[in-house]
Structures are given as C-alpha cells and as structure tokens.
C-alpha cells in the first residue's frame, strides 16, 4: 500500500514499503480476471449502442433539413439530460440497476426508430415525428451510458487491470460506429435504417445480461450491504484473492467521507478533478468529431464494401493494440506522445496544403494517422483518467456535470469543425489543440496508472496546488 508525506516545501513524496512488490506479485497470482472481463464486456454492449446510434438523426436529413436539425439538436439535448439522470440514479439505485434502466430506455428508442424509419419518405409528418422521439430516447440512453458504464467498469476492476478495462469503453463506441457503417452500406437507403435499427435493438437486448452481473462492491459498502459486497468481490476476484482486504480498504475510505455539497466545490478535492475531467473530455470531443468526419471522408473515398470491411478489421486490430499499450505504458506519456504526433503531422500537412503540394494519397495518409492516434490513445485514455480522478463520494455528481456540459457543446463544436474543414483551417486548428493538450497534460494531468482509487483521492486531499506532482 503506497502512502504519501507532505514535506515542508509543499512537495509530496510517495513512500512504498519493501514488501509491496511481493504483495503485488502475489496479488497477480491469486487475482482472477476472467469474471471481471466478462462483467466489463456485458456493460460495454451499451457503449456499442452509443457509437451505433450517433448516426440516427441522419435519416431525417433525407427528407427535410429542418427535421434533421431538430432531430440532431433534440438528440444532443436528450444526451445532456440523460447524463443528469444517470448522475442521480447511480447513487440512488446503484450502478448495475442504472445500466439496466439505460437498456430499457434505449430499447424504447430503437422500437420507435424501427416504427418510424421504414416509412420516412411516404408519411413524412407522422413518421418523422416518431423517428424524432426515437432519437430523443436513444439520446437519453447515450447520455446515461456515457456516465454509468465507465463508472461501473472502474469500480469492478482492480488497480492492476483498470487501465486495460477502461479502454474497452472507447473501443466499444468505435466498434458501434463501424458497425453502423457496415449495416448502412449493405442495403439501399430505403431499408438500411430499418435494418440498422434492428441490429441496434439486438445489441440493447444483449445488454440485458447485466441482470446476471454483480453490483459494484463499492456502492454496496456505501449502502451498508457488506455481506453482499464481499460475495460480489469474491465473484469478481476469485476465492483465493484478498477480497476481504479490498472491502476493508474501501470501508476505511468511506468512513472518512461525507456527501459532497455545493460548498465542497471550492475545495481542490472536487474542483481540480472537475476542471481536469472537463478539459480532458473537451479535447476528447474535438478528436471524436474529427474522427467521425474523417472516417466519413475515408469511407467516401473507398466506396467498395470490401474496403470498408478491411477498415473494420483494422479498427479491431488497433483496438487490441490500444489495450496493449495502455497496459504497458504510463498514461501521461501516451497522451503526450499522441498529441506530439498529431501536432507535427497536422503542421506538416497544413504547410503542404497551403503550398498546394498535398494530393489525395497524402490526405488519406493523414486521416489514417489521425484515426490511429484517436483509437489507440486520445479516444480511450480520457475515459479512463476521468473515471479514476473523480472521488468516490462525488463520482456521480462530477461525472454528470462533465458529461452534460460536454454534450451541450457537441453541436457548436461540430459546426466549428465543419466550418474549419470548409475554410481549409482544420489542420491548423488540430495543431493548436494538440499543442495546448501537450501543455495541459504535462503540467496538470496526474498519472493514475497502478494507483488505487483511494490513493488517487488521497493525493488530491494532501496536495492542494494545481501543478501536477503525481508523475
């Protein structure tokens, strides 16, 4: 167990007992991971639906631009509202129950989409109205998913595998985006949205397997259900693991906590994680918007179905590579490396574009580099870090605030990016964002790899400066 000492010059020193290494090695031998991976996989099915449903305002565009704009705005506002709902429910009902509720809401949304999409041209008014409501319900489901799934994954995973488990959220979203691209490409426009909604419906129905998964031990201990928490911890880690010690550590941490209030936001223990999480997701949102637009450009460039399937398989390979590098390398170094690659590549291609020396092959090469950096680094790591730095007593509150804020900014950010693409300024904008992210990660973002959630919270309580010393 690591401990921290605050010195006279306000620097924090981490002291590690000599027997810690033997303890970690013993933990690796006795800790079971298959059940944890299974629970994370089931929860991540909703994240697949997250990426899959991002395109569903699009069929409205085939009929009327006004309907499309209204559906798109309604979807984003509903996602923001869904984040607020999830913030309330994960503390009141539990993480698993909130995932099940999210599945039911998404199920209703897909049913409305299946009813509305097939007749979208023949019965414009009523069908578009139903489709719009389907987008709203799916938007609420997406907003709730963006909060509850990362929280569930962070709390059922041990410190040793939390990083690689956290990457699954983003990879599931990217998988959903590609899955929609495949299903939409196979059929012609008048049936592909109906078929896509059916595929999404199957994904949501599979997520009902969450009923068989355990509630997080941390939430059970916070609600005075120790026996059930101990059984769930044994199910997750195995009977030979130190499940009782894990429960005792969580209980000790909970005993020194109080419910977060408005006045607590003036303290570094809440304000700093909120600011760091918001800025991380702001940068992540810009890279996600760029990825979606660049992916659409790539799929338009390669219109054959076999090339889309190849891109799909490459995405799966990159997802596996992303899980590997997150497991092997420190998170801050990966973020710095990804931002540096995007910075130099964006500047180089921007200069070539301004000099009229960039051709289609060079542009495709840049899009591939951008996609690799997003899938392996900047797409997944903000999800992991944000789920770790929020203190357990306010994880739902801070997560709901950040997700709701980011969803409300989605449309303005998307419009800004599309305008920059039209004005040939997206490369310089990406360069600026990459440069700012390098400074932000180096000076502010803490390193959370191999630290328990209690140790990360302890860091914020002991050290009150904004400069990062948890390197």
Report what the structure shows.
Helix 7 packs across helix 16, helix 12 runs antiparallel to helix 15 and helix 12 (268-301) runs antiparallel to helix 16 (381-389). Strands 1-2 form a two-stranded antiparallel sheet. It is mainly α and 471 residues long. Residues 1-29 and 119-123 have low confidence and may be disordered. Helices cover 76% and strands 2% of the residues. The longest helix has 34 residues, at 268-301. It is globular and about 65 Å long. The chain contains 20 helices and 2 strands.
Which key terms come to mind for this protein?
471 residues, mainly alpha, two-stranded antiparallel sheet, 2% strand, globular, disordered N terminus
**What Rg, in angstroms, do the CA atoms define?**
22 Å
Q: Give helix and strand order, one letter per element, not per position.
A: EEHHHHHHHHHHHHHHHHHHHH
Q: Indicate the proportion of strand residues.
A: under 5%
Helix fraction bin: over 70%
Uncertain runs are 1-29, 119-123
- Structural class of the helices, strands and pairings? mainly alpha
> Helix segment count?
20
Large-scale geometry? globular
> How many DSSP-defined strands?
2
Largest sheet: 2 strands, antiparallel
Mean pLDDT: 76
């Amino acid at each position: 167990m690591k401990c921290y000492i605050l010195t006279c010059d306000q620097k924090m020193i981490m002291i590690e007992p000599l027997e810690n290494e033997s303890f970690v090695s013993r933990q690796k031998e006795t800790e079971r991971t298959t059940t944890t991976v299974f629970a994370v996989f089931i929860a991540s099915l909703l994240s697949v639906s997250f990426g899959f449903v991002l395109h569903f305002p699009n069929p409205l565009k085939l009929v009327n631009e006004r309907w499309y704009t209204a559906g798109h705005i309604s979807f984003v506002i509903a996602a923001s509202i869904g984040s607020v709902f999830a913030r309330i429910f994960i503390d009141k009902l539990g993480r698993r129950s909130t995932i099940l509720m999210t599945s039911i809401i998404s199920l209703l949304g897909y049913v409305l989409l299946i009813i509305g999409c097939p007749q979208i041209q023949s019965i414009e008014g009523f069908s578009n109205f139903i489709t719009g409501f389907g987008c709203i319900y799916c938007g609420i489901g997406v907003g709730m998913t963006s909060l509850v799934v990362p929280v569930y994954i962070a709390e059922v995973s041990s410190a040793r595998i939390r990083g690689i488990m956290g990457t699954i959220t983003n990879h599931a979203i990217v998988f959903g985006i590609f899955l929609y691209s495949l299903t939409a490409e196979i059929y012609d426009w008048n049936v592909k949205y109906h078929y896509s909604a059916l595929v999404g419906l199957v994904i949501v129905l599979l997520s009902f397997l969450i009923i068989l998964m355990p509630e997080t031990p941390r939430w059970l201990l916070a609600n005075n259900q120790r026996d059930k928490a101990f059984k769930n911890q044994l199910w997750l880690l195995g009977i030979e693991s130190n499940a009782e010690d894990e429960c005792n550590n969580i209980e000790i941490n909970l005993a020194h906590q109080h419910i977060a209030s408005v006045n607590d936001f003036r303290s570094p223990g809440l304000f700093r994680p909120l600011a760091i999480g918001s800025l991380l997701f702001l940068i992540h949102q810009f890279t996600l918007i760029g990825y979606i637009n660049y992916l659409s450009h790539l799929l338009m460039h390669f219109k054959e179905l076999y090339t889309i399937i190849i891109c799909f398989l490459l995405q799966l390979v990159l997802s596996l590579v992303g899980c590997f590098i997150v497991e092997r390398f420190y998170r801050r170094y990966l973020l710095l490396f990804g931002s540096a690659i995007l910075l130099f590549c964006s500047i180089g291609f921007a200069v070539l574009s301004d000099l009229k020396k960039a051709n289609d092959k060079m542009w495709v090469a840049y899009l591939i580099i951008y996609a690799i950096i997003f899938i392996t680094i900047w797409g997944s790591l903000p999800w992991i870090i944000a789920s770790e730095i929020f203190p357990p007593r306010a994880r739902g509150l801070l997560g709901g605030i950040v997700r709701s804020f980011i969803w409300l900014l989605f449309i303005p950010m998307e419009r800004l990016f599309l305008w920059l693409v039209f004005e040939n300024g997206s490369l310089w904008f990406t360069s600026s964002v990459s440069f700012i992210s390098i400074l932000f990660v180096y000076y502010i973002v803490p390193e959370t790899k191999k630290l328990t959630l209690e140790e990360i919270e302890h860091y914020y309580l002991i050290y009150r400066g904004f400069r990062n010393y948890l390197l």
